[in-house]
Amino acid sequence: MIMERKWWHDKVAYQIYPKSFLDTNGDGIGDLRGIISKLDYLKELGIDIIWLSPIYKSPFVDQGYDIADYYAIAEEFGTMEEFDELLAEAKKRDMHLIMDLVINHCSDKHEWFQKALADPDGEYADYFYFRKGKNGNPPSNCRSYFGGSCWEPVPGTDKYYFHMFAKEQPDLNWENPKLLGELYNMINWWLDKGVSGFRIDAIINIGKNTTFPSYEPDGTDGLAGCWRMIDSMETVGKLLKDLKNNTFEKYNAFTVGEVFNIEENALEQFIGEDGHFSTIFDFSAHCLSDGEHGWYDAPPMEFKRWRKTITDAQLEAQKCGFKANIIENHDEPRGASRFLPKYAQTPAGTKMLGTVNLLLRGIPFIYQGQEIGMQNVIWDSIEEYDDISTKDQYRIAREAGLSDAQALEVCGRMSRDNARTPVQWSSEKNAGFSTGTPWLKVNTNYQAINVESQEKDADSVLHYYRRLVALRKSAEYKEVFTYGEFIPAYEDTDTVMAYYRADTEKRILVAANFGREAVELALDYAVKGVLLANQADLSVKKTHKTGELLKLESCEVVVLECECS
Ligand code: TEU
Ligand code: CA
């Protein structure tokens, strides 16, 4: 596929969840100063683009995804001056900053919503979805993502306002041109400031069916999941085109959409040459653990399903554009705990998972702590959790009949807080994250897994990640890892995830054995050399001829350059 080259195609991105990154003033909350102090660390890792989860002024009901002022920095994190400093320091190091753009909803503390409440028939009410109830009931039976009705009464009226997430996150009315104008101005204000683009939150939700129909209930609460009302791709497509034309396009900005529920044939509209976004995240592997009723009935991760899902997503994406590949983010459990069987939850297994993910075709996003192999956290009381979604899922699990211990086991596997525990910088108190009391408990495994000790160990996950990113971006292999075709390989094996990245000049084989036993693969192409391996085993250090066997130990991954034919 021939496509116009864009500045972001060959970049490697890193997600920072500021509250948990690094606290420099001892209040237990990560801050902008902390981020500034780690820019060299990120540079050394090979990062080009930094995505900051929301840093705007917010009551933090949903950890900053409830924005009270799009033009202000949360006091907890620092000041606008510090933000400008961060931006300048990143630029100095040739790194791009992208912001989180949360425009499906805002906070109930935002001035717009406060004005709407003060005058429910006035201009600002139309910035939101205010609707009359039906026979003393809410206008429809939709259930919000965080539980309960999507409708909340507007005090002193017979109206309700609509929210797909928490009740403190009222949805914005995308049918109001005045509101859209305000949003576009805000976006352009940040772009004028020098940010390079945005990660765009929950964006598919803007295209909803605003007749607000009711649906067949899908739970004992009589409600139906609000995702059902996400309208056709046509509605959202028109809105997104307009958004892009008025903002991103004029700045050649990089945009990555958080898009779930996409219709099968709509991918090109999203990431094609003229797509709404530069890229969208590939959540296909994560959706494999969507439970029918919630986290408690999430199906277990099966290797072959996982392999097929990633393979299919890659083959689809390369027909029209680039996906953004992740192992984890702030909404997902740690990948090292989730995608690896127990016996593989080791440094070797973690390196293997990282290799398979980072060398896929697309734009890799590393989530903070992934580069040292941070893992899920085990807590023995729901009180330890902060996340609004976890509390709801715990409740759902208990209502479905699970015991406290069983429901906590579910949270230990699925909670968003798994990824939100503070970054483990050292073996000192609070893992070196804070000298005060961290807002969320540090994972007790920080003595074993932390940046400082991995810095000293050339064989650590951290050093391996540096080599991995460096290989992907190296002058010699950048082209094939960026634009080379993805070709699945050894799909008939039970435990091997393997693929080629190939163009007319080069053919690279990435092969990983997720099994407990060693395997042997007959090579289809002669091996010219080893580019990277996670085990010092000499079996791969020599070249192989076509037809010879390549032995892979349990949890071994190799990246081999092969003859092209
Ligand atoms: O997430 C949107 C999203 O689609 C959710 O389904 C999310 O994956 C789910 O709640 C997990 O339990 C985005 C943000 O990434 C998330 O942190 C926010 O809570 C949400 O939007 C609302 O802004
Ligand atoms: Ca702080």
Features:
565 residues, alpha/beta, 8-stranded parallel beta barrel, globular, binds 1-O-alpha-D-glucopyranosyl-D-fructose, binds calcium ion
Provide a descriptive summary of the structure in words.
The chain is α/β, with parallel strands linked by helices. Helix content is 28%, strand content 17%. The strands form six sheets. An eight-stranded parallel beta barrel has the order 1-2-5-10-12-13-14-15. The longest helix has 17 residues. The radius of gyration is 24 Å and the shape is globular. It binds 1-O-alpha-D-glucopyranosyl-D-fructose (TEU) and calcium ion (CA).
Percent helix: 25-40%
Count the beta strands.
Answer: 22
Q: Which oligomerization state do the chains in this entry correspond to?
A: single chain
Ions, cofactors and other ligands present here are:
1-O-alpha-D-glucopyranosyl-D-fructose, calcium ion
Rg, rounded, reads 24 Å
Integer average pLDDT: 96
Major β-sheet annotation = 8 strands, parallel, barrel
Alpha-carbon distance between the two ends: 20 Å
How much of the sequence lies in strands comes to: 15-25%
- Main structural class: alpha/beta
Strand order of the largest sheet: 1-2-5-10-12-13-14-15
Number of helices, counting only DSSP H or I runs of 4 residues or more: 17
